[in-house]
User: What shape does this take?
Amino acid sequence: MADLEFSNIYKHFNGVYALQNASFSCDRGEVHALLGENGAGKSTLIKILSGAYTADAGEIKLFGRKLGIRKPTDAMNCGIGTVYQELSTIPDLTVSENIFIGRIPQNKIGYFQKKKLYQMTAELFREYDVHDIDPDAPAYKLSLSKRQTVEIMRVLSKKPDVVILDEATSALTENKVRWLLSLARKLADENRIVIFISHRMAEIQEVCDNITILRNGMTVGEMNVKDVVMDKVISLMLGRKIEGYFPDVVNSVIDEKLLEVRNLTYTQILNSVSFDLYRGEVLGLGGLAGQGQAELLLAVFGIVRPKGEIKLDGEPHKIKTPQESLKKGIALVPEDRGAQGLLMSFPIGYNISLPSLKKMTNGPFLDKKKEKDTVSAYMNSLQIKAESSEMAVMNLSGGNQQKVVLAKMLATKPKLLLMHDITRGVDVGTKKEIFSLVRDLAKEGCGIIYFSTDIEELVNLCDRILVMYDGRIGAVLSGKDMTKENIVSASIGALP
Ligand SMILES: Nc1ncnc2c1ncn2[C@@H]1O[C@H](COP(=O)(O)OP(=O)(O)O)[C@@H](O)[C@H]1O
Ligand SMILES: [Mg+2]
Assistant: This one.
């Protein structure tokens, strides 16, 4: 008998099955991957183990004992620790308060012991090789990657026997991904059970021992990682083969400058950045994460105010607020869809129509029908999988949430679309849809800045590529220079 066994788990939400007969098992000392398209049921399965949901049927056994988990604290008491897909650090608390929330040391008369708390965090960081985060820093000041690291530390501080990482690498920078992969291995070597959910096959092959593949809430395959044949895995995930992953790039660049950026400089982060973007162009933005790409997009959108000059359609573009940008036809798909992109507890429809409500009026009144039609048009064209537009965004799978962000931005009918790593944590099927959408928008004359940390996407989707390195544009690649080798060289500052 295996140390952890899920047998025939069922779970439905309002009559729609998220899990129907999902099973898998793993042992101590093992890193076990759960693989499947967005919406396959991976998060639901692990949320049952962590007590966030209860199963309709089926059973879970841990170390031979049937688990009767009813709430998250039960799971914690059984030694189960979960790093959820959506970040949940509390912005106003410090790093150490976030980690030890509910367990902050107090003295006899109830005063918080700040120094002790700091030491506990510092010790934890030493144990797990975290060197770049100040235990006293407020969480809102941290990058997405560091916040994710804090969440991982919160879970590990409880010394769980079972560690669940639900797409934890998708928010991490390249260095931190390396760190987490060796951490996962170390935890398994300490004889714990690690459940690892990721869409990145290379990571899975590097660190996992066994793989369970889910499709439509069902277990459709289990294999040892040594026996992985990529085509087989993908066809199991999709139940079909994906053809034409990247769309044909038909040059739609019009010889009209949409955006002119000159000498943008912002603290140490942007250093004299200059470039042009043409109508109908998909301009790739590459480089390692954290080289100024995020700030560049935020500067054009009006959230960050650097020195230098930006012109939109030949006119000086001096924007003070994102609202002004939206009015001028600029849209941003942001880095953190939770904090910046979506109102998680609000309905899908509300999220999609919010920024474009002004375009949906009938005289002074909101045209409800127009709003409804717009929402359903985008839900259809992007194939957002939900029972209705009334469903809260937080109940959607990660990929479908990403589509809601995109729908919301497309509904504003932008002429300039800024995209921040939109395919992060998104399954292959959804990626393919997003790629064709990007090219279709360009065909309609929209100018797009497409930031991606995935080199394949840059090479296969873009008309030109700017590679950023240390706040500067390290290389501008076009035509046959748009190779993976050139992007990698420029990313590490090795291209002349
Ligand atoms: N709280 C919920 N209410 C309604 N539907 C949900 C809820 N949580 C998940 N679902 C649905 O269950 C299915 C599986 O989702 P999920 O487990 O998040 O998939 P994955 O993690 O594999 O991407 C999806 O169709 C999703 O919309
Ligand atoms: Mg998920």
Summary: The pocket of magnesium ion (ligand 2) is lined by residues 42-43, 85, 166, 397-398 (CB under 6 Å).
